[in-house]
């Protein structure tokens, strides 16, 4: 490598550099209305459709709607984040940024902050729509419902940042969805209780973060106050998101071959 183009070393994690990266990503997203619509409008639209699919059985919507309130944001944030980050790398933007005194941790933190801001907005809108307009009835506090939806959206952001390092094209990034999201969707307990699964699948579901997101939503369906199980599940989802972000910073490549 030419020494004049070698990236200069950067400090570990700089809040200032991370915030500057987040601001740049948000400015780019502001000019991409289709991506904004995918992040903000699509989960809300899916919840409206789900509500009227079960129009004759509101209790079914209460049961499934709470879980999907977290799953829909996770899926959309995974797709948008993985494709957007990959686009930065294939266009050469990431390589130019890493030639500056900007570390991988700064980049990952900046992307996480930017997409996390949309995750907050997405979760607020989806939760408010579900509880106050679609009549989603849960015993727990709507604020706890919002918390789990937000944690799921942040987990989707972290997973998207992580898998983007292993994709060479946007098509490949989308192909990661069946490998990363679908197994979690099948094994999270949404379709059948995890206790009723084959022992091997139950053991696998125990290490998948979406399982704990669904378990946390289930706690809110049946308990008015925060339970120990809910706090444990929320902490596990948070820990998984932080772990995946750390792995994303470690595996981030400057460019796609």
TrEMBL record:
<feature type="domain" description="ABC transmembrane type-2">
    <location>
        <begin position="30"/>
        <end position="255"/>
    </location>
</feature>
<feature type="transmembrane region" description="Helical">
    <location>
        <begin position="143"/>
        <end position="166"/>
    </location>
</feature>
<keyword id="KW-1133">Transmembrane helix</keyword>
<keyword id="KW-0813">Transport</keyword>
<keyword id="KW-1003">Cell membrane</keyword>
<dbReference type="InterPro" id="IPR047817">
    <property type="entry name" value="ABC2_TM_bact-type"/>
</dbReference>
<feature type="transmembrane region" description="Helical">
    <location>
        <begin position="36"/>
        <end position="54"/>
    </location>
</feature>
<comment type="similarity">
    <text>Belongs to the ABC-2 integral membrane protein family.</text>
</comment>
<dbReference type="InterPro" id="IPR000412">
    <property type="entry name" value="ABC_2_transport"/>
</dbReference>
<keyword id="KW-0046">Antibiotic resistance</keyword>
<keyword id="KW-0472">Membrane</keyword>
<feature type="transmembrane region" description="Helical">
    <location>
        <begin position="66"/>
        <end position="86"/>
    </location>
</feature>
<dbReference type="Pfam" id="PF01061">
    <property type="entry name" value="ABC2_membrane"/>
</dbReference>
<feature type="transmembrane region" description="Helical">
    <location>
        <begin position="234"/>
        <end position="252"/>
    </location>
</feature>
<feature type="transmembrane region" description="Helical">
    <location>
        <begin position="173"/>
        <end position="192"/>
    </location>
</feature>
<protein>
    <recommendedName>
        <fullName>Transport permease protein</fullName>
    </recommendedName>
</protein>
<dbReference type="InterPro" id="IPR013525">
    <property type="entry name" value="ABC2_TM"/>
</dbReference>
<keyword id="KW-0812">Transmembrane</keyword>
<dbReference type="InterPro" id="IPR051449">
    <property type="entry name" value="ABC-2_transporter_component"/>
</dbReference>
<feature type="transmembrane region" description="Helical">
    <location>
        <begin position="107"/>
        <end position="131"/>
    </location>
</feature>
């Amino acid at each position: 490598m030419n020494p004049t183009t070698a990236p200069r070393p950067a400090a570990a994690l700089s809040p200032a550099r991370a915030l500057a990266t987040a601001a740049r990503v948000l400015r780019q997203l502001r000019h991409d209305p289709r991506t904004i619509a995918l992040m903000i409008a699509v989960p809300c639209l899916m919840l409206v459709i789900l509500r009227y699919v079960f129009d004759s059985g509101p209790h079914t919507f209460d049961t499934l709607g709470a879980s999907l309130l977290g799953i829909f944001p996770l899926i959309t944030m995974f797709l948008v984040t993985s494709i957007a980050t990959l686009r930065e790398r294939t266009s050469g933007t990431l390589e130019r940024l890493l030639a500056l005194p900007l570390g991988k941790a700064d980049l990952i933190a900046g992307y996480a902050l930017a997409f996390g801001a949309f995750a907050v907005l997405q979760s607020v809108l989806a939760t408010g729509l579900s509880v106050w307009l679609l009549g989603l009835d849960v015993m727990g506090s709507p604020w706890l419902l919002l918390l789990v939806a937000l944690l799921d959206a942040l987990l989707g952001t972290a997973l998207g940042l992580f898998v983007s390092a292993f994709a060479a094209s946007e098509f490949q990034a989308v192909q990661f969805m069946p490998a990363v999201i679908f197994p979690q969707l099948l094994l999270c307990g949404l379709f059948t209780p995890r206790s009723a699964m084959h022992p091997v699948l139950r053991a696998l579901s125990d290490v998948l973060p979406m399982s704990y997101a669904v378990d946390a939503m289930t706690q809110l369906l049946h308990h008015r106050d925060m339970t120990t199980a809910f706090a444990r599940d929320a902490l596990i989802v948070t820990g998984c998101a932080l772990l995946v972000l750390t792995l994303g910073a470690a595996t981030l490549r400057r460019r796609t071959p």
